Fold these 2 entries.
Entry 1:
Amino acid sequence: MANVFELEHVTKVYRNDGNEFTALEDVSLQIEEGEIFGIIGMSGAGKSTLVRTLNRLEDVTEGTVRFYDDDLASLTKWELRQVRHSISMIFQSFNLLQQRTVIQNVEQPLRIAGVRNPERRQKALEMLEIVGLTEKQNVYPARLSGGQRQRVAIARALASDPKVLLCDEATSALDPKITGEILDLLKKINEERKLTIVIITHEMSVVEKICDRVAIIDNGNLAELGDVKEVFRNPKSQAAKKLVFPSNPFDPSKPDGKLIRLVFDGLEASEPFIANLVEQTGKKVNILSANTRSVGGIGYGQMVLELPEDREDQRIIINFFRNGGLTVSEVN
Amino acid sequence: MSDYIIQAIKDGVFETLEMTFFSSLFAYIIGLPLGLILYATSKGRLLSNRPVNVILGTVVNIMRSLPFLILLVLLIPFTRMIVGTSIGTTASIVPLTVGTIPIVARMVESSLEEVQPGIIEAADSMGASPLYIIIHFILPEATPSLLQGAAINVATVLGYSAMAGVIGGGGLGAIALQYGYYRYQKNVLWTTVALLVVLVMIIQESGGIIAKKTRKS
């Protein structure tokens, strides 16, 4: 599979009135054709800077960013503008023209590329159909809901037939239900149009839902990179753990209590594990946090349990879950 | 009031409107691009260029800080060069235009600054050129605000046009000065003042309505 983007030792330093701030430090990664690639990190970690190096809205201080065979830094301004027709972007604040109708907004990239009417209008209408907003074509963005505005932005992004779509916190301003709908739409577009998608987010749930691979950015550094399932099941870096573990489980009720995290990612969750534990071993656990869901009858998610104080009991319980095929990790 | 004065006031209204219209028009022809350049060359903008921005900004500031009455006198030779005379309605258009340009430029600049940076970033990410971004993204987004500013500017020009009476310009200002001030005809003075107020109100209101109509957000 060809790489859409190849980043090698990318470093970005902002210099402002003698102050230096390193936003990115020695980041190397590849984004493959056709995948949905997540970039996740806390706010201020450098992920927005990272995504802006992909279409050279930000120049890198050191290192190279390659888009297919082009080293972005070596392109002239004119060449860069041509390349940008192939790299679309959507934003947290949608960034639609308020004084233009929906259809006029969607037509913008086509106008820039020099496509004339009636093909331009035709193409824009096709794009609106993909996002399901055909009947809103003559409405101004101010009259749309947040989710609808992001759909218009997606239609606009698709109009130039890009090779890749960059999403900068595209769902962060939306409520969970609408976020889900937008992510479903992105997934559909990814599958139907074989479009590579790069998603920047600070929410693990977004990555979990649609990404194939994920890069975790922490303090400008690439903390972890891998398949989403693997990172979710077995986060190695501190930054990854912070993102993957439930944000604030209860503290253990007893000082010696031990917290463990179970990860479900397959058939296992359909079994009553906790009940089996009690029945078969006679040991009891306390559920502190649980976040599981069923996708097509298969359970996914995680659970944080508090184990009894006794060490031997803890060992028995952990072995019971491990033998059952669950991934167990210690929280504290 | 005698028929003569009534006729003079009627002519004065037309002269005032003529001066206001042409001065505003010319001031925008020069001031709009100037404001655009001020905006685009400022720090962190599309065509960021410090020397251009500083020089232009300084010139605009100096022109703006000159009291209009002083400018009127200073520009007499220049006006004579362009129009051939420094007296009358047509001649007043020159100093009015020059005096309004810096106001227009700053007003345009601040209207453009209201445009959300995200919209420009989006345009940039689509591969639009700076000129395209200005014409198709920034100007349309700023249009309601530009119109609002234009209403204020035109009303200001109208006020300035009354001052042109001092150096022999025409219009309501000249009438107020000659009949009302020099000859103590209070009724003429108040009539012209009332007319000026009404004109300013009409301009300001209709400008506001047009701006509101165009605003879609």
Entry 2:
Amino acid sequence: MAYMNSSDKMKVVFGDVVLGVHSKGAFGGEGFEYLFSYSAGGMESLAVNGREWLYRAPKPTFWRAVTDNDRGCGFPFRSAMWMGADMFQQVKAIRVFLDGEEIKDFLPPGNNRFQGEVEASSLEVSYAYRTATVPETQVDVSYEIEKSGRIQVKVHYYGREGLPQLPVFGMRFVMPTKADGYVYHGLSGETYPDRMAGGTKGRYEIKGLPVTPYLVPQDCGMHMQTDWLTIRRSSVLANNVKPGKDLSAESFSITFESSGNPFAFTCLPYTAEELENATHQEELPAARRTVVCILGAVRGVGGIDSWGSDVEKDYHIDAAQDIIYSFNIIPCFE
Amino acid sequence: MKNETVPELSWLDDPEVFRVGMLPAHSDHIFYDSEESCQNGEKSLYQSLNGAWQFCWSRNAAVRPEKFYEEDFDSSSFSSIIVPGHIELAGYDRIHYINTMYPWEGHLYRRPAYWQEGKGGYPGQFSEAEYNPVGSYRLEFDLMKELWGKRVCISFEGVEQAMYLWLNGHFVGYGEDSFTPSDFDLTPYIREKGNVLALEVHKRSTAAYLEDQDFFRFSGIFRNVILYAKPEVHVEDLWVKPVLHEDNHSGSFALDLKLSAAGEALESLKGYQISVALRDKAGNLLLERKIPAADQIFLAPEELPELHPWEHKTPYLYHLEIRILSETGMLTEIVPYDIGFCNLELDHGVMKLNGKRLIINGVNRHEWNARTGRVINEADMAQDIACFHENHINSVRTCHYPNQISWYGLCDREGIYMMAETNLESHGSWQKMGQVEPSWNVPGSIAQWKEAVVDRMRTNFETFKNHVSILFWSLGNESYAGDNIQAMQEYLREKKDRRFIHYEGVCRNRAYEAVISDVESMMYAPPWEVKEYLENNPKKPYVLCEYMHDMGNSLGGMKSYIDLLGQYEKYQGGFIWDFIDQALYVEDQVTGKDVLRYGGDFDDRPSDYEFSGNGILFANREPKPAIQEVRYYYGLYE
């Protein structure tokens, strides 16, 4: 992975609706360009060498497609609120820090004072999200960009008494097209907090975005204890980029890496809701995107029975407790 | 010619009629009439009747072609069906999956015959039902030359659920137990050429109350149909009694034989000799005896000083050969059988095999193939065994019915411990909406239901008694407990068989605890409940006959169970529920692709939908991701 020449400062654009940050080339040029929207609820663009990595702004995720055991023990009924929270959320505050200093009054007309691009060595943009739950709580997501293009993502879920257990908590990234596959360093196979003793640590390469073909589509493809994950694509939505010509069979990748504690992830062509909605594999829509969830907490899958027993207590996610985790996104410029 | 029995449709309604004209259950040995055919495994005395049969489906008995068994019946309107196969997968009737509920739930108000004291049966409950499909099977065949002039019998290895059999217009017999062989003597009516065999299969009878397993509810001839010709003198049954002593290297060998002869039995046996030879793997002779033939032979225990014990890692088999020789020394019949020696004992409440604590790393296994349902082939079985070995699975429970015959020999050879379950489950009769509610229950203690279930136990035992891999007999599954299940256990006790007796249902009715089951067997008990039993003066060793319910993506928390093995000597493991998803390939109406479908996908109602998908393998035998967890934990105690 080649980093940008770190002696160059990056350029910050205090737009009226969108805050941009780029290395040397804006508008799909060489280098990176990240856009943080004030209206679209989060980071709107993550472009590297002109290749877009985001289909929609990444958001906190609170739902997994319920497993047969979840269903059997009434979990989705008790925790249904989190499904709504997963689908609908609202930004309540955005904060910006430039070289460690908070910038106030960055919205128009305050931004008129910048006169042009602003140079910086680091930029942090953070979003505070309200949850559509009763009681309501908050999730802070901050993106800290270094001039190399590396993004450190810090996520903080504020625990609140009275909220039902969570099925999962983390960040969901939806990419514009279906990935060719992914490579990760972590545990073999599909693992969960209560099912990972059989996983062997190593580097694993996965072709395509396999969905485990459970009779009724449900949460699947979980990978616990991951050190890094690299996703590779070779298609884009851009009309002016012709596969086989501009992309010349080349593929491009992006990496999520742990910043300290390993993370859990899924990398599937579907959101939890898309999986949830199907009663058979063949009802799943045509696979056209890459949905990556980088997770700070995962509920177990249990196994005692499928008609009443919950997963073991140690593998519940208590929504009254804070969940704090972080990871890095590393663009690849090759 | 003997007086012919007249078949009655009312047998379908009568729990006391479950076998008519059927031969007694016997051991599953193969026999040959020459050394050469034996060596080459050429089953020249057998004739398979698998293949295309003529077939007619009727919605109920009233509209069936009643006289279809007559030789001159015009069957030109019949279609064709492949035997073995399920009627529902051949394009007739409706595929239906349902778990504990009886399949007529909500459609019909039914109670089993004699359930209320002082009240009788329900004549016509099945025989006159508006919906109780009938499959009329007809096959014209010539007898292979090798079978000419001999006593010829037929074996239906599996027919669901009630069957009437005719040959050349003559009624032969009737049977109900769907999952054990039903044999009939065809000798009185068979011809060398131009035979007309007719089988009438009724989807349901009183047996339906005893076959309420959690599976797709199929009907029809779903296992092999085989003719066999008995030589002049024939081993009808062999019961090998290999014993491994407590020292685990010496033992003894005893043998009971039942012989039959073509003519008047005792006279015809005169002059015949029986030769018994037991060899080890290398072919060394351990024992050889010559005994004059008799209709019953008991070879008293013979001591054997040095034996290789049979167990999972070293499934050592000895080769037994029984020869029947005529007065002039001519070979009449030869029966080869592979046997093993193992020492099963209950030592201070711990089940031991060859002196070591038995650990069950087990799975429950339904016979399943996503294209053919419960019709599975040798390749499926071989694949399953390979999967067992790969994942340190050492035990299998034949949930919840006897399996195909060849599976037992495979488990002998591969060192797989078996819990051989009897074909009995009456789940819907005592558990309703998850609650124990035995206000009506079969078999319970109802006298009229006793013989049917004892017979199921007997057939299971008699057929498979020589398989060393069977460590447990299971009386059945989820049928509550009463005098009749106690009678099944008593049947086994009288046989003085050394294997453990297993029955989980007694935990639902502890009044029978002392007289049913050698093991405390539970299903889906959470780890802390298992502990509670084991910490309070456990009366019996503990086995989870079902645990780790792996529905969809649901296998987790296995550690809590495996840890118990290290903590409690009397916890001896369990059988994961279960081995393979039960789902069927269907062509998708929208995409035209083959997709896997489950209960409710056939407009079948009521249904339990995807509840049949609990395997550690998908229905197409691809492993589910969770299997690596099974491999890890079962590997700790292999």
